[in-house]
Amino acid sequence: MAKDNTEQQFRDVMHECRTLFEQKLHDYGASWRIMRPSSLTDQLFIKAKRIRSLEIKKESLVGEGIRPEFVGLINYGIVGLIQTENGYVDTVDMTPAEAMKLYDRHATEALELMLRKNHDYDEAWRSMRVSSYTDFILTKIQRIKEIEDLQGQTLVSEGIDANYMDIINYAVFGVIKLDEESQTK
């Protein structure tokens, strides 16, 4: 794929994720607002761990594959950014419209970060294996856990929000690569 196609592929994946997020907001409201940081981190962990398990076992007994889990990581990564910014609550305090506005802002930030990094790294992600994205995501989740355990008191590390952004971007790359692989089969 040409470099100029990466932005459109990224936008297409994010549009798909946004549509699903909006549908779930319709069904459940912003129920995720009650999630404390550690619960959100664990939700990300189980999704990434399932991807790794499916990559190793090459079989799903539940019927859902790897791609939907990457989509889940993208959406929960954005939820993480929203929660980091707004904290958690005991009762839902956000309308679907408010949630979508925040979703769109963070999705745009993720796109802008990807474009800057993609420029500097010169499309290196295209030569990587999908399993590497999974491992990088699991590493980012472990880093979030450590930062949470340190109650945010790090010495030199990026914050939790930077790790969420990387999780989003690696998961988008995973979806793009899986889609490309399925088109060549």
3D architecture notes:
With 185 residues, the protein is mainly α. The chain is 75% helix and 0% strand. It has 6 helices and no strands. It has helices at residues 3-28, 37-57, 66-86, 96-121, 130-149, 160-183. Helix 1 (3-28) packs antiparallel against helix 4 and helix 4 (96-121) crosses helix 6 (160-183). The protein starts with a helix and ends with a helix. The mean pLDDT is 93.
Give the beta-strand count.
0
Which structural class matches the secondary elements?
mainly alpha
Label the overall shape: globular
Strand content bin = under 5%
In helices, the fraction of residues equals over 70%
Give the oligomeric state. single chain
Indicate the radius of gyration in whole angstroms: 16 Å
Name the poorly predicted regions. none
Sheet with the most strands, sense and barrel status:
none
Order of helices and strands: HHHHHH
How much is the average pLDDT? Answer: 93
Figure out the total of helices.
6
End-to-end Cα distance, whole Å, is 16 Å
